Amino acid sequence: MKKFILIPVLALACSVMSIAQKKGTVDAKMLNEIRASFKLDASSKAIQNAITNSESIRELSLNHEKLGKTDHFFKYRVDVKGITNQESSGRCWMFTSMNTIRPEVMKKFNIKSFDFSHNYNYFWDLFEKSNLFFENIIATADRKMDDREVVLYFKGPVDDGGVWNSFFNIAKKYGVVPAEVMPETKVSNKTREITSLINEKLRGEAYKLRNMIAEKASTKDVELAKMTALKAVYRMLALSLGEPPVNFTWRFKDVDGKISESKMYTPKEFLAEINPDFAKTELVMIMNDPTRDYYKVYEIKNYRNVAEGINWTYLNLPNKEIKKFAMASIKNNEAMYASCDVGKQHNRKAGVMDINTYDYASIMGVEFDMDKKARVLTRESGSSHAMALIGVDVDKNDKPVKWEFENSWGTTAGNNGYLTFTDEWFSEYMFRVVINKTYLDEKAKKALKTDPILLPIWDYMF
Predict the structure, then answer these.
(1) Structure pTM?
(2) Is pLDDT above 70 for 122?
(3) Strand pairing class (453-455; 296-300)
(4) From which residue to which does the signal peptide run (predicted)?
(5) How many whole angstroms separate alpha carbon 160 and alpha carbon 305?
């Protein structure tokens, strides 16, 4: 009796499973229709031959109609000198932040050129990020290893990345020094190995800290273990980057050939001399994030490099307003920290970024039609590189038609180290600008005073 009952039940289960497997799968009928949609006619054959024999679809897609249409002349341009080179590192945020204040130093000392030691601030950035990582691990030690926040901390304890507030935090705490005081090393110019080694050490020590807390170790013992781990990090950094100076002497030759007297500084004293108001800065980050309400302030949880430092906080504004404020800053000879999705529609040889520089739709015969909001929400686009915003060209009505970046990829990249981008490209791929709030209008200044909306560390924009 049981056999006759089991057979139809098994048959029914197999039938249900068959239906479940078919739902959403590509069956023979669908595949035939899809195959039939592709016609290898003469035009498609020519494109297929070109693509399959090319080393770069990007180069094949270069839009000839765009070539030579954008020049590198600007009606309004900040007085900047010299191009820096971050080499094979992710320190664009640091180079850009320093590039916006380098002109002030050259003007103050009447010198032809000047650069900061990026290596000095990079040392302290990695060191402070390591400390913050341990603090985050200790604060979340009661959670499981697969907790979303814990997973993110262990996934990337430290890296080269950052934004303007990262430089502000480090410079405020440790100051800055001239380039020759702590020169670059092979490691600081090519950072992948050192960050990888430090991350391995950090993950191992953090795992021990979690186990200590789980076993009810005293706060004193946990702090002692953290201190021991930080000493190890300091040693690794000192061996790879050199040890940061506590004080230094510096002198210079001005444009008239006069050599100054040697003067001793601490790094914080040097910062105070070149920028007395740095710690009480009037700079604010404004951002175009079309996925969120404008004229509201947002703060990303734990997006900083120093435990006691400020988080990444920004005022969200429409592009039209950001452009208006940025123009005012440039006209007043003040460069701005800015960041964008630099890889999009970027003709590196010409040093130009424009909408449809690369016509992928024509060569592939398919549409690419996401707007900025959709690109952000789907992770197709986001800020990937920081540069100094230094120039704007306008039409006869003083409306912007193109802009200019001072990059940190050396003089051989782009237009002798600079990048030109159209106003349309600005709207689609520019994300944030750090600007003196003096240039904001009353509506924006009022919005700045509101309490920030806290965003999680895993937010899609960051």
Answers:
(1) 0.92
(2) yes
(3) parallel
(4) 1-20
(5) 11
| Active site (annotated) includes residue 385 | yes
14 is annotated as an active-site residue: no
Q: In terms of CATH, what superfamily is 76-81+282-455?
A: Cysteine proteinases (3.90.70.10)
CA–CA dist 365, 60 (Å, integer): 13
Catalytic member of 119, 165, 169, 407: 407
Give me the catalytic one of 63, 85, 92, 305. 92
Q: Hey, what are 155's tokens?
A: 């996934």
pLDDT above 90 coverage of the chain, percent: 94
* CA 395/CA 327 separation, integer angstroms: 13
Among 83, 109, 111, 108, residue whose Cα is nearest residue 98: 83
User: 340 catalytic, yes or no?
Assistant: no
3-class secondary-structure state, position 392: strand
Contact status, residue 199 vs residue 156, Cβ threshold 8 Å: yes
Distance from chain centroid for Cα 378: 18
CATH 3.90.70.10 occupies which residues in the chain?
Answer: 76-81+282-455, 100-274
- Give Cα 448 to chain centroid, integer Å: 23
Mean pLDDT across 280-287: 94
Q: Is residue 385 pLDDT above 90, yes or no?
A: yes
| Fold designation for 100-274 | Cathepsin B; Chain A (3.90.70)
pLDDT at 133 over 90: yes
Mean pLDDT, the chain, integer:
94
Q: Give 318-355 pLDDT, tens digit per residue.
A: 999 999 999 999 999 999 999 999 999 999 999 999 99
